[in-house]
Amino acid sequence: MATVSNTTINRFHNVSDAALADMLGAADAIMKAAKAELDAHKAEFQKRGLASMAGAKYLITCSEQIAARLDTDAVRKFLGADTCKFEVPSISNVIRVKPSPALALAA
């Protein structure tokens, strides 16, 4: 992996690598808990069949959205080896967060 040299001072400039890992893990746990709560609220909104509802602070709407997706397996089956002519590489970074092995031993 390439090394990045960054001289810009930001709010993490004096945070150790280990502390950054713990901060990232804590933020990830908060985000996952918030996402679970959000999903529960959305499910209840839909279960009630609401299309729109105004509260004291927020207006919530729900509408159906339809998107067409390309069945890439069917395209590969149809084109066979020629499929590679149309493939474009997509490069991204993936950060995975999981509990430290030290935490598992402490539990």
Query: Could you give the distance between the termini?
Result: 33 Å
Average pLDDT for all residues: 89
**How large is the share of residues in beta strands?**
5-15%
Task: Characterize the overall form.
Answer: extended
Radius of gyration: 22 Å
Query: Major sheet: size, sense and barrel closure?
Result: 2 strands, antiparallel
Strand order of the largest sheet: 1-2
Helix content: 40-55%
Q: Please count the beta strands (DSSP E, at least 2 residues each).
A: 2
Count of helical stretches: 3
Low-pLDDT stretches are none
The computed structural class is: mainly alpha
SSE run: HEEHH
Structure write-up:
With 107 residues, the chain is mainly α. The protein is built from three helices and two strands. The longest helix is centred in the first third of the chain and has 31 residues, at 17-47. The radius of gyration is 22 Å and the shape is extended. It starts with 16 loop residues before the first helix and ends with a helix. The model has no long low-confidence stretch (mean pLDDT 89).
